[in-house]
Amino acid sequence: MKLKRVLCVLMAAVMVAGTAACGGGGDDKSGTAGDNNTTEDDKAGEDSTGEDNAEEPSGDGEDGADDTQTEEPADDGGSADGQVLKVAAVETAYGADMWNEICEAFEASHDGLTVELTIDKKLEDIITQQMKSGEYPDVILRAVGAESGLTETFVKDNNLVEMTDVLAMTVPGESTTVGDKILPGFVENSITNPYGDGKTYLMPMFYGPCGLFYNQGLFTEKGWTVPETWDQMWELGEKAKAEGIALFTYPTAGYFDAFLYALMHEAMGNDKFQEALRYGEGVWDTPEAQQVFDIIEKLASYTEPTTPANANDNDFQKNQQLILDNKALFMPNGNWVIGEMAEAPRAEGFEWGFTALPAVTEGGERASYSFFEQIWMPAGAENQDLGKEFIAYLYSDEAASIFAKSGAIQPIQGMTDKLDGDNKLYYSIYDTGAVAVMDAFATTDPVEGITVRSTFLDPVNSLVTGDKTKDDWVNQIKADSEQLRAALKE
């Protein structure tokens, strides 16, 4: 399933990450990601919450959602005579059927409960007008990074119900807590915990790891081993070059978003990584940051020379085809590429392989960026206890199985054991030692002529062609970071 299109718009108003959908050309995946960082639709955002909300903003840990809670949420089914739970979910490539089935199952476990589901590809167009008149959904599935900036606006306005207590709830019908079922890292990031106070406000839902795809059949034929360090990667590059094969290609420069975040986390460690995401003064002069630039510069020298010419919406699949034709060894991508290239010709014995980035040092961290969707509750929700119980139910084995039938996979412990084929290969990456990275560059007010993409991603094309040097790129990053830092949204 081509998760790329909405998954990769993630870099919006908090520190992002993304939603799973399909459509459009190859550049949609991360082309909008960088742009969303500096072009938040403020008007749409204001319309989403309105200026005259009856509810006081929540999320500050003082006068927020806790004031509206009068009892602990129930963690099992029961009587709900006359209650109506309003659930709103954006429709993605996974379709609407799974949400209908989920809501029906939850409704059936509560006598007298009605679950009203609103699901639409343009969800904001429906619920914005309702929220203006004070009618809020109880639960909303909408990830950061949407063009409307809906979720970011609720975050910015401290207009969310805190979800930390949901992590401690027992999953309905099971004996495990929600927090214990969620994979490490998925509620310990700046998206789910946007205020840096250790409290969770957005809950992780469907996810998609990104890493390096390759032809396992070719590696088997040649007796090559997938590199575990960058030094091993350069050694393999020389072997491949001797046989007329490039080490690397990429669909478009936009695909360096997930690649760059993972590499930065490996080389810089989490503290400096977080500093860099906020364009910290002097951070790009550190030895750790310089190591990131050195690796990308060297990788550019090993990149198939035709790549930049085809790195656009119309021709990006020609670069992906290089992997299938054994003309390049690795490319950064997400699992949508498997379906995207399903009908493409391929070398005899071709078999998809997928791996995290090589480690910077022997035995060091190997990272894989993960896009994921979020589910949350607006402060104006009327049925907050029931809404939290519904969210807790979404992490049950029953719910996870319903979602998985449509290809929507959640970051739940043991979920990969239930998958097979390419899906198992893809989603097992964190089970085999890869570190999940999920943060992204901080959102800023618009800065004319500067986006995350134009600063950090597009210059890779020029590195490959030789039109720009590493020093040119680093100097641009430093200069642009000065302006982005000054425009940070607080």
* Overall form: globular
Please give the CATH class of the largest domain: Alpha Beta
Give the low-pLDDT segments. 1-76
Biggest sheet layout: 9 strands, mixed
Instruction: Report the CATH topology name of the largest domain.
Output: D-Maltodextrin-Binding Protein, domain 2
- Share of residues in helices: 25-40%
Instruction: Report strand %.
Output: 5-15%
Output the CATH homologous superfamily of the largest domain: Periplasmic binding protein-like II
Terminal Cα separation, in Å? 36 Å
As a whole number of angstroms, the C-alpha radius of gyration is: 22 Å
For the record, the count of structural domains works out to 2
Overall average pLDDT = 84
Which structural class best describes the helix and strand composition? alpha/beta
Number of helices: 21
What is the CATH-assigned architecture of the largest domain? 3-Layer(aba) Sandwich
Number of strands: 11
Task: Please give a handful of descriptors for the protein shown.
single chain; 490 residues; alpha/beta; D-Maltodextrin-Binding Protein, domain 2; 2 domains; nine-stranded mixed β-sheet; two-stranded parallel ribbon; 21 helices; 39% helix; globular
